[in-house]
Structure formats: structure tokens, C-alpha cells
Amino acid sequence: MKNPIDPSAQIAREQESLKQRDFAQVNYFEISRDQADQRLDNFILARYKGLPKSNVYKLIRKGEVRINKKRCKPEQKLSNGDILRIAPVQLSTREAPVISADFAKGLLDRLIYEDDRLIVIDKPSGLAVHGGSGISFGLIEAMRESFGVPYLELVHRIDKDTSGVLLVAKRRSELRILQELFREKQVKKTYMAILSGELDSDFAKVNQGLERFTLPSGEQRVRISSEGKPSETHFRLQQRLRGATLVAATPLTGRTHQIRVHAQFLGHSLLGDDKYGAGSTSTAHRLCLHAHKLELPDGRVFEAPIPADFAKFIKKLS
């Protein structure tokens, strides 16, 4: 009887082989069972560190990426046994982040849950989930440098200035399972938020489409649009404050900046939100949005306690 394959060892071997590759020449990848079912663009981005996403799409569009000698599309799913050919690519050099011992310990102290397949961490406000767009590194890069785990990938994302529950997969198979649950809307997320002004009712539902747009400065924003993606958020009263309202916000869909834009639509922008309303006029020193609880359909519930700075601000307004 053959010994079972150790996924961690397999991933470690793959990472070692990547170190030995010269991406300035043609490279071939044979897709394993563990790598199957992921999108082509995500597969390339995970291996060609430093390559902008736009360059990946350009390579694919020009036919410089082939699957089984055939042209392909960025969203195409890879299959077990596929032979992927990638033409020579010039990568920008990006040094690994230098993580101090104190910072690494701080991340370890924020662990909510860990097993051999999953890490749940309480992300601090002000730390992006990943590097890019002028940010040298984010939470996932710091975790890869600090935790000594062969494979770590974000299951989902939360905004840089939002704190709270974040799932990180330790195996590709776990990543696929959890991301499918998010896509099928089987994961319940509850955020704590402080809205500007006093909410009239104990419950408010916003069902408004959202679309992205670009400011003249190049910054990406989101707005309400009848032609946007369907989006729904529920707001439940938790505590009435002086000139503000503490609510539990439950997004039934997972759009970028959804809670922030839907709160703005209500006329009660989040305190500390410098993009969508009550930022400059608020005494809050952070975005008052915290990913408090995440519930999986198998019954597992992960909670991140209200951060000290968030709790202090609630007390100040009580």
C-alpha cells in the first residue's frame, strides 16, 4: 500500500522548485491534483511574485501563456495533468519584508484559532491584508515570514482600516472549500460599526447595487448604482450614543466597501471614514468598523473582541 501524499511536503517541494526557476526563460508547470480547479491568473500571480496583474492579463491575451499548447483565458480553471507553458517574463525585484521579532510576536498573539488546515487571526486596523499599490508588505506577507508555514493564502479580504476576523488557509484544498462557501453566501459575517447620527429605527435594510469607479487621481471608489452588482446589508441597533449609533452590520453579499457605502446611503456614514463621509468631522482616530464574528455552515464560529481603541470611543460617546 502506498504512503499517503503529505500536502505540506508537496507544497514545500513546489516552493523549492520555484526558487530554482529562471523566469526570464520559458517555464513549464504540470498541474497536480492539489493545484487543480484554481483560476489560471491566480495560479500565475501566486508564483510570479512582483508581476503586476495587468502584465499577467497581457501575457495571456498575447498568447504567451498556453495550456496544453492552446490559447487560454485568465478565468480558465486548471485541471489535473494540464501542462502550462509561460513565455519568458521580466520580474521586478521585491525584497522579502523584514519582520521584527516584536511584530512577529504581536501577530502570534492575535491568533483566534489554528489547526493543520486553517488560521484565524484578528487583523489590526491600519494593516493591509497584502502588499501592493505602494505598500511594501501586508498581513499575509508578514505571516509568511513569521509563521514558518509552507503554504499560506488569504481566504477573503477586509479593508486596510477595518479590524477583525480574517481566515488564512494553510492548504490549497482548504482554500478552495472555504472560498466556495463565500461564493455561495454560506458564510455569515457580522461587523460592529459606529454610524454618525442617530438611527431612527432598530433595524435598517439597504438593498442597493454597487459599482466601482476611478477618481481623477486614480484612486478606486465604490458608489450606489442601479447598474451595479446586487448588494444587501442589514443594520441592527446595538446602542444609542451621543450623536452616533452602534450597530451590528451584516452584509448578505461581499462587495468592496459595501458596509461603508450602504451606511452612507442611509445618511449615517461610518465614523472615521475619510472616503465616504464622516471622516474629517469625526474625533475618531480610526475607521469605526470591526469584523466581529464569522460563522461557517459547519457550526464553527470565530469571534474577535472589540478592540481597545474602538471600545474606548464607544465609552466616550455613551
Global Rg: 21 Å
Topology order in helix (H) and strand (E) letters:
HEHHEEHEEHEEHEEEEEEHEEH
Number of helices: 8
CATH fold node name of the largest domain: Pseudouridine synthase
- The tally of strands reads 15
Low-confidence stretches: 1-12
Query: Would you identify the CATH architecture of the largest domain?
Result: 2-Layer Sandwich
Q: Report the CATH superfamily of the largest domain.
A: Pseudouridine synthase
Top CATH class of the largest domain = Alpha Beta
Helix and strand composition category: alpha+beta
**Into which percentage range does the β-strand content fall?**
25-35%
Average pLDDT for all residues: 87
Instruction: Please bin the fraction of helical residues.
Output: 25-40%
- What spatial form do the alpha-carbon principal axes imply? globular
Distance between the termini: 66 Å
Largest sheet: 10 strands, mixed
Domains, number = 3
Question: Features of this protein?
Answer:
Structural Genomics Hypothetical 15.5 Kd Protein In mrcA-pckA Intergenic Region, Chain A, 318 residues, disordered N terminus, 3 domains, three-stranded antiparallel β-sheet, Pseudouridine synthase, alpha+beta
Write a short abstract of this structure.
The protein is an alpha+beta fold.
Protein model, in words:
It is a single chain. This protein is of the alpha+beta class and about 325 residues long. It folds into 3 domains: about 5-85, RNA-binding S4 domain (Structural Genomics Hypothetical 15.5 Kd Protein In mrcA-pckA Intergenic Region, Chain A, Roll); about 100-170, Alpha-Beta Plaits, CATH 3.30.70; about 185-315, Pseudouridine synthase, CATH 3.30.2350.10. Helix content is about 25%, strand content about 25%. The protein is built from 8 helices and 15 strands. It has helices at about 5-20, 40-45, 55-60, 100-110, 140-145, 170-185, 260-265, 310-315, and strands spanning about 25-30, 65, 85, 110-115, 120-125, 155, 165-170, 190-195, 205, 210-215, 220-225, 230-240, 245-250, 290-295, 300-305. The strands form 3 sheets. Strands 4, 5, 6, 7, 8, 9, 12, 13, 14 and 15 form a 10-stranded mixed sheet that branches. Strand 6 (about 155) and strand 7 (about 165-170) form a beta hairpin. The longest helix is centred in the first third of the chain and has 14 residues, at about 5-20.
